[in-house]
Amino acid sequence: MIANPHCVYHIQVCQPYVPTVGSNHPSLLMMHRYIKLSKWDEVLGTRDTGRKARDEIRDILEANGSVTISFDGVNVVSSSFADEAIARLMIDLGSERFRSSVHLIDASPRIKTVVMASIVIRDTMAESQSAATPVAR
Known about the structure:
With 137 residues, the protein is mostly helical. The chain has one domain (26-126). Helix content is 51%, strand content 12%. It has helices at residues 26-31, 47-64, 79-93, 95-101, 109-132; strands at 33-36, 43-44, 67-70, 76-77, 102-105. The strands form 2 sheets. The chain has a 3-stranded parallel sheet with strand order 1-3-5.
């Protein structure tokens, strides 16, 4: 499997693949809107900050159809922030739309782990809730 080194996901999940030289590569910026999470802080630790980020990401998605989220300049991401900003966004959009329109770049291995764990936990919770809902007959 070919992996995009700048993307949190493997190429199968992070579609379409956009080759980047750096987070400010012009071809990336022209295709869709770019947001740098370090504008809030280099340590992203609260649900409140996660909600603010998710709201801004959602606004960009509505205006442009896709968004690139850069973790450049971010040293720490808590599971609370990752759940509010990224995992809840995936649930709100649905995994198919999330994979095709949200691109996560410039994440350290530790940040990738925290974000992926938050997505897996949130997705598992959503599946559990839908499985527990009785089917009307």
